[in-house]
Amino acid sequence: MFWDWDFAISITPTLLQGLKITILATVLGAIVAAVLGLVFAILRRSTNRLISRTTGFVVEFIRGTPLLVQLYFIFYILPDFGLRLPPLTAGVIGMGLHYATYFSEVYRGGIESVARGQWEAARAGNLNPRQTWVHVILPQAIPPMIPAMANYLLAMFKETPLLTAITVMEMMSQARSVANTSYRYVEPMTLVGVFFLIISIFSVFGLRWLERKFGGRAR
């Protein structure tokens, strides 16, 4: 038969183990991207031109090079300089750093959408920079950013198969391992596509809910 249900069922637990790694890498990568993206956005707003321009160059350089090349650099080249990272750690850092450049643009747009009067009110209230950011600017800037960030989170999830290039045993790696061992490619690759599709469909509904809840606040 072209499709073997018994074989498909037998390999499902293996693929689900890979799916756990896929989701873990996505979540951890998103956390790294969210934190670094905010740092990039704040540094680019610095009044010190050296800091702002250097940060802008770094952001554009990372965003302008392929994620796969960055993963190779972190996992295969950094060890030559004495920095050897486990595959999953390297993957999380690579994805997080890459998407931080996109998150930084989302942050920048959200921050610039805050009315100038809010900054002036914070100064009039004698708030220091940290208090201004934490209590005035970010609470107003973050809600409109959430739909865009969720879109990038979904994009990051779809790009996790690139981690197979640095030996992370995520779902695609598990499928390739099964296929290379059994010489059957239809079932594992189809199941991987189905798992990605199911999660993406649920994510789309979540994105639409976020857009309804927070999207209006951007205006």
TrEMBL record:
Gene Ontology MF, one: transmembrane transporter activity
GO annotation, cellular component aspect: ATP-binding cassette (ABC) transporter complex
Chief location of this protein within or outside the cell: membrane
Location within or outside the cell: Cell inner membrane; Cell membrane
One GO-annotated biological process of the protein: amino acid transport
Family: Belongs to the binding-protein-dependent transport system permease family. HisMQ subfamily.
Keyword GTP-binding: no
Protein name: Ectoine/hydroxyectoine ABC transporter permease subunit EhuD
Alphabetical keyword list: Amino-acid transport, Cell membrane, Membrane, Transmembrane, Transmembrane helix, Transport
UniProt-listed PANTHER family: L-CYSTINE TRANSPORT SYSTEM PERMEASE PROTEIN TCYL (PTHR30614:SF0), MEMBRANE COMPONENT OF AMINO ACID ABC TRANSPORTER (PTHR30614)
InterPro entries with a match to the protein in the record: AA_ABC_transptr_permease_3TM (IPR010065), ArtM/GltK/GlnP/TcyL/YhdX-like (IPR043429), Ectoine_EhuD (IPR014341), MetI-like (IPR000515), MetI-like_sf (IPR035906)
Pfam families: BPD_transp_1
NCBIfam families: ectoine_ehuD, HEQRo_perm_3TM
Organism (species): Paracoccus caeni
Residue ranges crossing the lipid bilayer per the database entry: 20-43, 55-78, 189-210
Topological type in the membrane: Multi-pass membrane protein
Record flagged with keyword Cell membrane: yes
Ranges of residues in domain ABC transmembrane type-1: 19-207
